[in-house]
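#struct-help
A.M.: can someone run this one for me? Single chain, 140 residues.
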Amino acid sequence: MYIASCDFNTLPAFAQEIVNQMPQGGIILLRGNLASGKTSFVKAFATVLGINEAISSPTFSILHEYEQKLFHYDIYQCGCEGFLSSGLIEKLDVEGYHLIEWGDTSFEKILQRFAMAYTTIDIEIDGLKRTYKVNMNAHA
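D.P.: on it. C-alpha cells below:
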C-alpha cells in the first residue's frame, strides 16, 4: 500500500501513475465520502487514457462506457445485490479499466468469490487536497 496526496492540478499525474502500474487494465474500487473526489479521479483517469468525452457519474444508470476501454460504475444506489442482479458482474471480464465508485468491503467479497483481482483507492479530503490510499492488487 502507498499513499499519495494530490490537488486538482496534480490529479492527472497521479492517474497516470495508476495507469502505468496497470497497463493492461483492471478493476479499481474507489471509496470515499460524498464529494471526496471519486468522479474527479475518473475524469483525470479518462484524460490520461485519451478519452475526450464528458465524464459524469453513472449514479442512476450504474454504468457509463467510454471508447470500450473505460467502464465507470456507481453502485451507490443499487448496492452489491443490485449490481449482481443486473448481470454487470460479467462486464468485469471485458478488457479495459473498470472504475467502481462505492466498492466497499461487501463488494470486495463478491470479487473475491469470483476470483477477480482488484485494486482499492480510498480517498480522504484534506483541505483542497485529497489523500489517496492505494492498495494495488488487493486481491489477486
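A.M.: thanks! The chain has one domain: 2-135.
D.P.: also worth noting: The beta strands are 2-6, 25-31, 63-66, 70-74, 96-101, 118-126, 129-139.
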